Amino acid sequence: MNPFLYTQPADLDGVLAEIALQDARPVAGGTNLLDLMKAGVPPADLAAPQRLVDITRIAGLDGIEEDGGGLRLGALARNADTAYHPLVRERYPLLSSAILAGASAQLRNMATNGGNLMQRTRCIYFYDTGTPCNKREPGSGCPAREGLNRQLAILGASEHCIATHPSDMCVALRALDATVHVRARDGQRSIPFADFHRLPGEHPERDNTLEPGELITHLSLPDADRFAAHSAYLKVRERLSYAFALVSVAAALDIQGGSIRAARIALGGVAHKPWRVEAAEALLAGRAPDAGAFAEAAELLLQGARGYGENDFKLPLARNAIVQALGMAARGTAYAKGERA
Ligand SMILES: Cc1cc2nc3c(=O)[nH]c(=O)nc-3n(C[C@H](O)[C@H](O)[C@H](O)COP(=O)(O)OP(=O)(O)OC[C@H]3O[C@@H](n4cnc5c(N)ncnc54)[C@H](O)[C@@H]3O)c2cc1C
Ligand code: SF4
To answer: Residue whose CA is closest, atom 6 of ligand 2?
Structure first.
């Protein structure tokens, strides 16, 4: 492990000044960044961070509160506190389920919402510094295309990288149309969730559109009450806990009088970012919530999908998981049945 400087600024201005330094990186729960540092995996534009800026002392960034009919989630709120918050459980059960499908109870107690968005791929070549990897070392190659790719992408990949984004929480945030709010020393901006994570293209070293020196301060979610009664997060993985998604589906339906008024569907474990195809959602509008309609939506969501050998099984798996998750959503959540814990 390389030596590094550790600082703990007391407020937001102090953090923003320090993370503007070229060799600095923010650290929150540390559950991904410290693993990467121990494995010797550097951030895209740094040989190794020389300065870790602990952001957990900033006041006011760990709240979860109502916000004009929607919800505001602080970047420093822990994943567990977010999943179990009464507002999240009642009004955004899809988000609660997705977070609770991830990692383990111990990790969720440490992991923060901002850190969850920024976590890096779990492609094994990315962590193995003895192998080439375009994401770790641009231009060195992508052994995963011909190699061990069981976990990797079937959609939106490029010749340079077929990695997936490993988050569960982000799949629900994509379905729920979240917005990411960021601050830097010279200003602030808001990024629609669809534009936050990137496809790999020619620059797989860049996971997202956050610029150096920017800090995620909070996320906002629009009102999603109409979806609360009919939503489901289905995660298919190698074992029941402590495993990343092979395929996951966040599904939410607004059902009135026996027909679908609106649908939201996002996929995890299949691409470099949570995958959503709005045409598949439009196709469901006005239809009865049945397996035939769900299968048609699955075809649209998976248009252009391809496997790379080991991960070919993900094509039928994803198709079946989409139909299954939409069926679970249609049958209703605990919220719909008045079974609130
Ligand atoms: C064994 C294991 C199993 C796991 N399983 C799952 C799983 O099944 N599903 C799942 O979704 N996740 C899983 N995770 C990942 C876990 O959810 C992430 O490690 C965690 O969410 C990261 O949050 P953190 O606060 O610890 O981030 P850190 O490790 O502190 O930081 C991660 C990155 O985010 C940056 N960062 C942190 N906060 C901010 C901010 N506010 N603004 C800008 N940048 C920031 C850091 O600089 C760093 O680059 C697993 C992790 C482990 C170790
Ligand atoms: S898929 Fe991406 S992360 Fe994995 S080896 Fe290829 S370039 Fe690296």
So the answer is: 142
